[in-house]
Design a protein that fits this description.
eight-stranded mixed sheet, binds adenosine-5'-diphosphate, binds magnesium ion, globular, four-stranded antiparallel sheet, alpha/beta, Rossmann fold, binds iron/sulfur cluster, 329 residues, 12 strands
Length: 329
Protein backbone atom coordinates (compact mmCIF):
# COMPACT_ATOMS: atom_id res chain seq x y z
CA UNK A 1 0.00 0.00 0.00
CA UNK A 2 1.25 3.50 -0.87
CA UNK A 3 1.79 5.72 2.17
CA UNK A 4 -0.67 8.59 2.51
CA UNK A 5 2.14 10.99 3.37
CA UNK A 6 5.84 10.63 2.76
CA UNK A 7 8.26 13.19 4.19
CA UNK A 8 11.69 12.79 2.58
CA UNK A 9 14.91 14.40 3.85
CA UNK A 10 13.16 17.52 5.07
CA UNK A 11 15.50 20.26 6.28
CA UNK A 12 14.19 23.58 7.56
CA UNK A 13 16.18 26.62 8.70
CA UNK A 14 15.31 29.96 10.28
CA UNK A 15 17.09 33.03 9.04
CA UNK A 16 17.83 35.85 11.46
CA UNK A 17 20.27 38.69 10.70
CA UNK A 18 21.40 36.72 7.63
CA UNK A 19 22.40 33.79 9.88
CA UNK A 20 20.81 30.48 9.07
CA UNK A 21 19.94 28.00 11.81
CA UNK A 22 18.93 24.55 10.65
CA UNK A 23 16.32 23.35 13.15
CA UNK A 24 14.95 20.34 11.24
CA UNK A 25 17.69 18.24 9.68
CA UNK A 26 16.99 15.58 7.05
CA UNK A 27 13.82 14.29 8.64
CA UNK A 28 12.11 11.41 6.83
CA UNK A 29 9.02 9.43 7.75
CA UNK A 30 5.79 8.16 6.26
CA UNK A 31 2.19 7.88 7.42
CA UNK A 32 0.08 4.96 6.21
CA UNK A 33 -3.66 5.24 5.58
CA UNK A 34 -5.54 4.71 8.86
CA UNK A 35 -2.39 4.92 10.97
CA UNK A 36 -1.69 6.86 14.18
CA UNK A 37 1.91 8.06 14.04
CA UNK A 38 3.22 9.71 17.20
CA UNK A 39 6.14 12.15 17.09
CA UNK A 40 7.75 12.43 20.50
CA UNK A 41 10.57 14.51 21.93
CA UNK A 42 11.54 17.22 24.38
CA UNK A 43 10.63 20.82 23.77
CA UNK A 44 12.65 22.55 21.03
CA UNK A 45 13.47 19.40 19.03
CA UNK A 46 11.72 20.49 15.83
CA UNK A 47 8.38 18.67 16.15
CA UNK A 48 6.16 21.69 15.50
CA UNK A 49 8.36 23.00 12.70
CA UNK A 50 8.08 19.58 11.01
CA UNK A 51 4.29 19.64 11.40
CA UNK A 52 3.93 23.21 10.16
CA UNK A 53 6.10 22.43 7.10
CA UNK A 54 3.59 19.82 5.97
CA UNK A 55 0.81 22.38 5.70
CA UNK A 56 2.98 25.25 4.47
CA UNK A 57 2.31 27.19 7.68
CA UNK A 58 5.89 28.10 8.57
CA UNK A 59 6.63 31.68 9.59
CA UNK A 60 8.13 33.98 6.90
CA UNK A 61 11.68 33.75 8.34
CA UNK A 62 11.71 29.97 7.77
CA UNK A 63 13.30 28.34 4.71
CA UNK A 64 12.73 24.80 3.57
CA UNK A 65 16.27 23.94 2.51
CA UNK A 66 15.66 20.53 1.03
CA UNK A 67 13.31 17.61 0.86
CA UNK A 68 9.89 16.68 -0.41
CA UNK A 69 6.54 16.14 1.29
CA UNK A 70 4.50 13.80 -0.88
CA UNK A 71 0.78 13.62 -0.08
CA UNK A 72 -1.18 11.20 -2.27
CA UNK A 73 1.56 11.32 -4.87
CA UNK A 74 1.95 15.14 -5.03
CA UNK A 75 4.73 17.23 -3.49
CA UNK A 76 3.16 19.76 -1.10
CA UNK A 77 6.39 21.79 -1.15
CA UNK A 78 5.95 22.43 -4.88
CA UNK A 79 2.34 23.60 -4.62
CA UNK A 80 1.31 27.25 -4.89
CA UNK A 81 -0.85 28.73 -2.15
CA UNK A 82 -4.09 28.10 -4.06
CA UNK A 83 -3.28 24.40 -4.49
CA UNK A 84 -2.23 24.17 -0.84
CA UNK A 85 -5.49 25.82 0.26
CA UNK A 86 -7.35 23.00 -1.49
CA UNK A 87 -5.42 20.44 0.58
CA UNK A 88 -5.53 22.40 3.86
CA UNK A 89 -8.86 22.01 5.49
CA UNK A 90 -10.14 19.49 2.94
CA UNK A 91 -7.60 16.68 2.94
CA UNK A 92 -5.32 17.58 5.85
CA UNK A 93 -6.35 19.53 8.95
CA UNK A 94 -4.53 20.57 12.07
CA UNK A 95 -5.53 20.70 15.75
CA UNK A 96 -3.37 23.10 17.74
CA UNK A 97 -2.58 23.29 21.43
CA UNK A 98 -3.60 26.89 21.66
CA UNK A 99 -7.38 26.68 21.22
CA UNK A 100 -8.14 30.24 22.26
CA UNK A 101 -6.07 31.59 19.38
CA UNK A 102 -7.54 29.10 16.94
CA UNK A 103 -11.22 29.88 17.58
CA UNK A 104 -12.59 33.27 16.57
CA UNK A 105 -13.73 35.01 19.79
CA UNK A 106 -16.34 37.22 18.10
CA UNK A 107 -18.19 34.49 16.21
CA UNK A 108 -20.50 31.87 17.72
CA UNK A 109 -19.45 28.23 17.56
CA UNK A 110 -22.38 27.64 15.18
CA UNK A 111 -21.21 30.37 12.80
CA UNK A 112 -17.63 29.11 12.78
CA UNK A 113 -18.57 25.48 12.24
CA UNK A 114 -21.17 26.12 9.53
CA UNK A 115 -18.79 28.47 7.71
CA UNK A 116 -16.10 25.77 7.56
CA UNK A 117 -18.62 23.12 6.53
CA UNK A 118 -20.17 25.27 3.77
CA UNK A 119 -16.74 26.26 2.44
CA UNK A 120 -15.28 22.77 2.35
CA UNK A 121 -18.30 20.51 1.79
CA UNK A 122 -20.30 22.86 -0.42
CA UNK A 123 -23.47 22.44 1.72
CA UNK A 124 -26.21 25.09 1.80
CA UNK A 125 -26.88 26.92 5.07
CA UNK A 126 -29.56 24.55 6.38
CA UNK A 127 -27.61 21.38 5.59
CA UNK A 128 -24.40 22.88 7.00
CA UNK A 129 -26.23 23.69 10.26
CA UNK A 130 -27.62 20.15 10.54
CA UNK A 131 -24.16 18.72 9.92
CA UNK A 132 -22.59 21.10 12.49
CA UNK A 133 -25.07 19.86 15.12
CA UNK A 134 -24.23 16.27 14.20
CA UNK A 135 -20.48 16.99 14.60
CA UNK A 136 -20.99 18.64 18.01
CA UNK A 137 -22.85 15.49 19.09
CA UNK A 138 -20.04 13.30 17.77
CA UNK A 139 -17.44 15.06 19.91
CA UNK A 140 -19.52 14.32 22.98
CA UNK A 141 -20.98 17.71 23.87
CA UNK A 142 -24.47 17.80 25.35
CA UNK A 143 -27.20 20.06 23.94
CA UNK A 144 -25.59 20.83 20.55
CA UNK A 145 -28.23 23.47 19.63
CA UNK A 146 -27.29 25.49 22.73
CA UNK A 147 -23.55 25.04 22.02
CA UNK A 148 -24.10 26.41 18.48
CA UNK A 149 -25.28 29.72 19.96
CA UNK A 150 -22.33 30.14 22.35
CA UNK A 151 -19.16 32.18 21.90
CA UNK A 152 -15.81 30.42 22.56
CA UNK A 153 -15.25 32.12 25.94
CA UNK A 154 -18.51 30.62 27.21
CA UNK A 155 -17.03 27.11 26.91
CA UNK A 156 -14.47 25.37 29.15
CA UNK A 157 -10.98 24.53 27.79
CA UNK A 158 -12.01 20.91 27.26
CA UNK A 159 -15.21 21.90 25.45
CA UNK A 160 -13.26 24.29 23.22
CA UNK A 161 -10.79 21.53 22.36
CA UNK A 162 -13.73 19.26 21.44
CA UNK A 163 -15.03 22.01 19.12
CA UNK A 164 -11.56 22.23 17.53
CA UNK A 165 -11.72 18.49 16.90
CA UNK A 166 -15.23 18.86 15.43
CA UNK A 167 -13.87 21.54 13.10
CA UNK A 168 -10.89 19.44 12.11
CA UNK A 169 -13.15 16.45 11.41
CA UNK A 170 -15.99 18.32 9.75
CA UNK A 171 -14.51 18.14 6.26
CA UNK A 172 -13.66 14.45 6.65
CA UNK A 173 -9.92 14.91 6.09
CA UNK A 174 -7.63 12.02 5.26
CA UNK A 175 -5.03 13.23 7.74
CA UNK A 176 -5.23 15.16 11.01
CA UNK A 177 -2.09 16.67 12.48
CA UNK A 178 -2.55 17.22 16.21
CA UNK A 179 0.29 19.20 17.80
CA UNK A 180 0.23 18.68 21.58
CA UNK A 181 -3.52 19.24 21.39
CA UNK A 182 -4.34 18.67 25.03
CA UNK A 183 -1.35 19.81 27.07
CA UNK A 184 -3.17 22.90 28.33
CA UNK A 185 -5.94 20.75 29.84
CA UNK A 186 -6.56 18.88 33.04
CA UNK A 187 -5.16 15.32 32.87
CA UNK A 188 -8.46 13.42 32.97
CA UNK A 189 -9.88 15.68 30.24
CA UNK A 190 -6.67 15.15 28.20
CA UNK A 191 -7.23 11.43 28.23
CA UNK A 192 -10.92 11.69 27.32
CA UNK A 193 -10.18 14.01 24.41
CA UNK A 194 -7.30 11.97 23.01
CA UNK A 195 -9.39 8.80 23.22
CA UNK A 196 -12.21 10.60 21.45
CA UNK A 197 -9.84 11.71 18.67
CA UNK A 198 -8.62 8.16 18.10
CA UNK A 199 -12.18 6.68 18.25
CA UNK A 200 -13.27 9.17 15.60
CA UNK A 201 -10.11 8.46 13.61
CA UNK A 202 -11.18 4.81 13.39
CA UNK A 203 -14.78 5.71 12.52
CA UNK A 204 -13.71 8.16 9.80
CA UNK A 205 -10.77 5.97 8.58
CA UNK A 206 -8.33 8.85 8.90
CA UNK A 207 -4.63 8.94 9.66
CA UNK A 208 -3.29 10.99 12.55
CA UNK A 209 0.09 12.51 13.25
CA UNK A 210 0.01 13.08 17.00
CA UNK A 211 2.75 15.21 18.48
CA UNK A 212 3.05 14.70 22.20
CA UNK A 213 5.56 14.34 24.98
CA UNK A 214 3.27 12.07 27.00
CA UNK A 215 4.68 8.57 26.73
CA UNK A 216 1.53 7.19 28.37
CA UNK A 217 -0.58 8.56 25.52
CA UNK A 218 1.86 7.11 23.02
CA UNK A 219 1.53 3.65 24.56
CA UNK A 220 -2.24 3.85 24.41
CA UNK A 221 -2.81 5.49 21.05
CA UNK A 222 0.12 5.06 18.65
CA UNK A 223 0.64 2.47 15.94
CA UNK A 224 4.12 3.73 15.15
CA UNK A 225 6.43 6.20 16.88
CA UNK A 226 9.18 8.59 15.78
CA UNK A 227 11.48 9.99 18.43
CA UNK A 228 12.99 13.37 17.58
CA UNK A 229 16.04 14.88 19.23
CA UNK A 230 17.79 18.14 18.31
CA UNK A 231 16.13 18.40 14.89
CA UNK A 232 16.65 14.80 13.82
CA UNK A 233 14.75 11.52 13.92
CA UNK A 234 16.77 9.37 16.30
CA UNK A 235 14.53 6.32 16.49
CA UNK A 236 11.54 4.93 14.64
CA UNK A 237 9.63 1.78 15.52
CA UNK A 238 6.20 0.29 16.03
CA UNK A 239 4.80 1.12 19.43
CA UNK A 240 5.27 -2.50 20.57
CA UNK A 241 8.91 -2.57 19.51
CA UNK A 242 9.63 0.77 21.11
CA UNK A 243 8.25 -0.18 24.49
CA UNK A 244 9.78 -3.64 24.35
CA UNK A 245 13.20 -2.90 22.89
CA UNK A 246 13.92 0.81 22.64
CA UNK A 247 17.38 1.12 21.14
CA UNK A 248 18.59 4.70 21.50
CA UNK A 249 19.80 5.76 24.95
CA UNK A 250 17.71 8.94 24.64
CA UNK A 251 14.54 6.95 23.96
CA UNK A 252 15.26 4.73 26.91
CA UNK A 253 15.78 7.75 29.13
CA UNK A 254 12.60 9.32 27.77
CA UNK A 255 10.58 6.19 28.48
CA UNK A 256 11.83 6.31 32.05
CA UNK A 257 11.55 10.03 32.63
CA UNK A 258 8.47 11.57 31.16
CA UNK A 259 5.57 12.03 33.54
CA UNK A 260 2.40 10.61 32.11
CA UNK A 261 -1.25 10.99 32.91
CA UNK A 262 -1.19 7.21 33.40
CA UNK A 263 1.48 7.27 36.07
CA UNK A 264 1.09 6.15 39.58
CA UNK A 265 1.54 9.52 41.33
CA UNK A 266 4.24 7.97 43.55
CA UNK A 267 6.34 6.82 40.57
CA UNK A 268 9.92 8.10 40.77
CA UNK A 269 11.01 9.83 37.59
CA UNK A 270 14.51 9.27 36.33
CA UNK A 271 15.36 12.59 34.78
CA UNK A 272 17.66 13.06 31.79
CA UNK A 273 20.49 15.30 32.96
CA UNK A 274 21.09 18.43 30.87
CA UNK A 275 19.02 20.01 28.13
CA UNK A 276 18.77 19.87 24.33
CA UNK A 277 21.98 21.61 23.16
CA UNK A 278 21.69 25.06 21.63
CA UNK A 279 22.90 25.44 18.04
CA UNK A 280 22.59 21.69 17.69
CA UNK A 281 23.05 21.93 13.92
CA UNK A 282 26.74 22.70 14.53
CA UNK A 283 27.37 19.39 16.32
CA UNK A 284 29.13 17.00 13.98
CA UNK A 285 28.71 13.68 15.73
CA UNK A 286 25.89 12.38 17.90
CA UNK A 287 23.85 15.33 19.18
CA UNK A 288 22.98 13.41 22.35
CA UNK A 289 26.62 12.68 23.23
CA UNK A 290 26.81 15.48 25.82
CA UNK A 291 24.06 13.77 27.85
CA UNK A 292 24.62 10.13 27.02
CA UNK A 293 25.88 7.74 29.71
CA UNK A 294 27.26 5.44 26.96
CA UNK A 295 29.16 8.12 24.99
CA UNK A 296 32.59 7.16 23.61
CA UNK A 297 35.04 9.40 21.71
CA UNK A 298 33.93 7.88 18.38
CA UNK A 299 30.36 9.09 19.03
CA UNK A 300 31.41 12.72 18.57
CA UNK A 301 32.99 12.10 15.16
CA UNK A 302 30.07 11.28 12.91
CA UNK A 303 26.54 9.93 12.89
CA UNK A 304 24.83 6.74 11.79
CA UNK A 305 21.13 6.11 11.19
CA UNK A 306 20.52 2.48 10.44
CA UNK A 307 17.88 -0.22 10.43
CA UNK A 308 18.38 -2.33 13.53
CA UNK A 309 15.57 -4.61 12.35
CA UNK A 310 13.06 -4.11 9.52
CA UNK A 311 11.07 -0.99 10.42
CA UNK A 312 13.20 -0.19 13.50
CA UNK A 313 15.64 2.67 12.82
CA UNK A 314 18.16 3.97 15.35
CA UNK A 315 20.68 6.83 15.24
CA UNK A 316 23.39 5.47 17.54
CA UNK A 317 26.84 3.98 17.04
CA UNK A 318 26.72 1.57 19.89
CA UNK A 319 23.24 0.03 19.71
CA UNK A 320 22.97 -3.39 18.12
CA UNK A 321 26.61 -4.29 18.68
CA UNK A 322 25.99 -5.77 22.08
CA UNK A 323 27.60 -2.69 23.63
CA UNK A 324 24.38 -1.41 25.12
CA UNK A 325 22.22 -4.30 26.26
CA UNK A 326 18.45 -4.07 25.87
CA UNK A 327 16.65 -4.06 29.15
CA UNK A 328 14.89 -7.30 28.30
CA UNK A 329 18.19 -9.04 27.46
N1 LIG B 1 9.52 31.37 14.18
C1 LIG B 1 10.71 30.95 14.60
N2 LIG B 1 11.83 31.69 14.44
C2 LIG B 1 13.06 31.25 14.84
N3 LIG B 1 13.27 30.04 15.44
C3 LIG B 1 12.18 29.26 15.64
C4 LIG B 1 10.85 29.64 15.24
N4 LIG B 1 9.99 28.65 15.54
C5 LIG B 1 10.75 27.67 16.11
N5 LIG B 1 12.05 28.04 16.17
C6 LIG B 1 13.16 27.23 16.70
O1 LIG B 1 13.15 25.97 16.05
C7 LIG B 1 13.51 24.93 16.96
C8 LIG B 1 12.44 23.85 16.92
O2 LIG B 1 11.23 24.39 17.41
P1 LIG B 1 9.86 23.57 17.49
O3 LIG B 1 9.65 22.83 16.23
O4 LIG B 1 8.81 24.55 17.88
O5 LIG B 1 10.15 22.56 18.68
P2 LIG B 1 9.13 21.54 19.40
O6 LIG B 1 7.81 21.64 18.74
O7 LIG B 1 9.79 20.20 19.26
O8 LIG B 1 9.09 21.99 20.83
C9 LIG B 1 13.66 25.59 18.33
O9 LIG B 1 15.03 25.79 18.56
C10 LIG B 1 12.95 26.91 18.17
O10 LIG B 1 13.54 27.89 18.98
S1 LIG C 1 26.02 7.47 19.44
FE1 LIG C 1 27.16 7.36 21.37
S2 LIG C 1 26.65 9.25 22.44
FE2 LIG C 1 25.13 8.98 20.84
S3 LIG C 1 23.46 7.91 21.80
FE3 LIG C 1 24.77 6.34 20.93
S4 LIG C 1 26.17 5.77 22.55
FE4 LIG C 1 25.23 7.71 23.17
MG1 LIG D 1 5.97 22.23 19.56
Amino acid sequence: MEPLLQVNDLSVAFVEDKTETVVVDNVSFSVEPGEVLCIVGESGCGKSVTALSILGLLSPNARVKSGSIIFEGKDLLKMNSKELDEIRGNEVTMVFQDVMNSLNPVLTIGNQLTEIISAHMGYDKRKAKEYAIEMIKKVGLADPSAVMKKYPHMLSGGQQQRIMIAMALACEPKLIIADEPTTALDVTIQLQIMKLLVELQKEFHMSIILITHDIGLVAELADRVIIMYAGQCIEEATVYKLFDQAGHPYTRALLGSVPSIYDDPDKKLTSIPGTVPENYYEIEGCRFSGRCPYAKPTCSKDQVYFELEPGHLVRCHRVGKGEIPFESE
